[in-house]
Amino acid sequence: MGSTNMLFFFVSESKWPDEPLSSEEKSFYQECKQYYHITGKPLISTSDEIFIDNIELTSASLKFGIDEDYNTFNVQEFLNKICSILSINTNDIQITKLQNGSSILEILIDGKKVNIKLTLNKIYKSLTEKVQEELAKLKVFFMFMGNIKALNDKQKFRSEIKLHPQWNRVYDVGHIHWTGALQDGRDRGKYAYFCPIGWKRHAFDVSDNYDEKFKGWSICYHGTKFDYGLSILLSGLAPARIAALGKGIYASQSIIYSTHPRYAEIKRIQSSDEKTFFKNGKYVQFVLQCRVHPNNIIVVGPETLEVDGKVTIDPNLTNNVIEWVIDAKNKDLMDFSDPSSTIVCTGLMIRVTDNHPGLLTESQWWYSGHICNNKNCCCLGIDLSELMKQKNNGVKCNFIYE
Fold first, then answer.
1. Which residue of 84, 101, 236, 265 pairs with 225 in a disulfide if CB–CB is 3.0 to 4.6 A?
2. Distances (CA, A) of 69 to 35, 62, 65, 106, 135
3. pTM, whole model, 2 decimals?
4. What is the mean pLDDT of residues 176-192?
């Protein structure tokens, strides 16, 4: 949390351009608002340059989407509060744009006065849950840090996704389906790619020469929290960063293993906004689909959920080669969207079900290992005793594709 002292920033409305939002921007920000209404937090994103050591930044911007009427939005009051929350020195910034369509405020950070990367990294690391709640109280539904061109490119790509639904995939019998290792002639390294049955994939724009870039790179999965997955799905922004654990990032060749509630949060679909978006589903999970070169996999080891040899987790793999550790190259934060990274996220996997996914056949292995009610450990989305009751009563669960 920033300083509790109010920083006063006096502005003149004639000093910056006043322009409407483009159709692409309107669509993008509308979906950011959906995230805000569902989660109660702003969608926060950054451009890649902030975290790349060998790129120098002489200027960068902060961009805020505020759920306020443009004609009544008090710019000065907002700036006073936002500078206090984020501990920004008002002498180091200037307003460059205010756009009509909600209130979209763009602020330039002067690289001649401060170290851009240190400033943005400090802001990024300060964005705790408490700070995000403070931003939400100011009705901030979107916040971006970095190169505005990068944001514009992402918005353009998001609009293109909508116009090209063939980029998305549904995996199941009657859709895209295969058994065993996929044999399609593409080089995915020495680790096989198995059909992620029950999942829908949304593709990311990570490379113009996709097949050439990822020749020899294997597919793996990384479970994620609901808020994180939803921000990717609604905004179209490739995932930003994830803290590396120990010497690397944990992933798996098995999507079945990656969907355990310790790794992939199970979210009950409750609010009207969620029901509008996920239609007839009752539960949703997100998993990141990634590419990694085998040379960057430093450990191929056994499961760590105490299943031991009691059951087989994934029929395509043995339990002792199901968890990978990816080399993080000594980075505290790994950029999953950087094509030069050791692990690159290429898609968001979504599973929507009409009942709790713990009732699915492929989830029955959970009960032979560790599973608990502690939300800091297993994000079940239901009380474990209630789930066990449904399981013992033979309650079924089905996939929902919409």
1. 265
2. 19, 20, 11, 16, 17
3. 0.73
4. 94
